[in-house]
Amino acid sequence: MDKVSIFYIFKANKMIKYFKKFPLLLLLFGPPVLRLDVRAADASLRTNIDIWILIQIGLFLSLGLLSLHKIISNWTTYKKFLFIKRVKNFITILLLFIIFLFGSCFLSPNFKITFAFSFLFFITLISGIQFTFEFISTNEVTTVDMLKTIRFVCIFLLAIVTIMLLTYPNFVSSSQQYYGLRVLGGRVANVPLISFIILVITCYGFIFYDSFDPKPKSIFYLFISLLFIYLAKTRAFYFTSIFFLIWIGYYAVYKQHKISNVLVVSLMFWFFAIFGVYMLFNSNQFFSFIVRGDISEQDINSLSSGRLVIFNWVTTRIQSSPLGIGYIAGFKKEFLNLGYLNGLPTFRIGNAHNSFFEILIGTGWGGLFFYCLLLSSVLILAIKTLAQKTINSYLYDSDIRFLLFLFLTLIITSLVSSDFVIPTYSSFGIFWNILFLLFALTLKKHKSH
User: Fold this and answer.
1) pLDDT per position as a tens digit, 356-379
2) CA 49 to chain centre
3) For residues 346 and 334, what is the distance between their CA atoms, to the nearest angstrom?
4) pTM for this model (two decimals)
């Protein structure tokens, strides 16, 4: 067996070891692809139990049992972390959020569906706690290992999307009036998100770690990620990518002082700028607004893809039901029955298209409060940790800063997407893996000193 084969076998075994050690990483693969019809896949949000829901529950139950087994097996090591004030506060917030999730079952038009999705969320959070404890207690696994694992799964999913694009294009792409061909990934994966993840992790490794990837490999990954971000033609990730390149470019110029870094970031920035102008003015929809000199309410709804209509309905509906109308099932059921709302075909809308509104309408003001408290506790802890300079700061600060940026980007993106709080969406696993990795890394820095 040659050296190259041995290297890849060793690398595969190492990756498998990470999935065994951190079951939460398995969520990165997202839900299994069981249907070849994209709309049929939305049956995961129907208000009746079907085989799809049962399979999802089975997979998450296996994930939860594996995480619980690891917690019990390593209890003597893990239990000491429960005495850390930050950990106790975090777990308390998690438990209160879970109470509101399950509490919404009693207000839901379909108890079974709301309970099923609440259970999936609960399993994820339990697995996240195990992830945190395991990452803090081991020195064998680094942040770079986790980032490479996350990127590996994203590349794997992108490869599946590419195969499906060549064999069953309707499953992962669609042709739209103003954008032409858009490769969004269907139920396989969220193509804009996984492409963005590949871009930012590769960029970060290229600039901050000399041994992260061979240069040709990095350039290939950057090219692939840029290509699919363009093919997806999603405004949210397009502009967050530009924002990231500005942020990483600052560090390339002022911190690293490497010409190669500056060159790569500059080329990527101009790539986005050129195609941004192209997308902006190639859109007949947007260009017609400029020609007319005015924007009607219908134009605004069209530009927001109907989100403003949904948001307005949520803010109105929650006033009469401050405790929510049932996680997942409530919104789906009531919005479905509207038929049309301000010209929006509500029977095609399965969620609130905003993670915060999704939690609000499902679990009420209490659920939203603890969800926001959960996110803000991680953000505040990360910011405070960065402000504390210790003898070991250089080992953690750049990784914490990067994960903090990535987490903030995902939170901002969640303002136009509910995917991060719906367990049967592939984006869900990425969001919660990043959250728990950031939380665990900040705790690890505190532990080191």
Assistant:
1) 999 999 999 999 999 999 999 999
2) 26
3) 9
4) 0.86
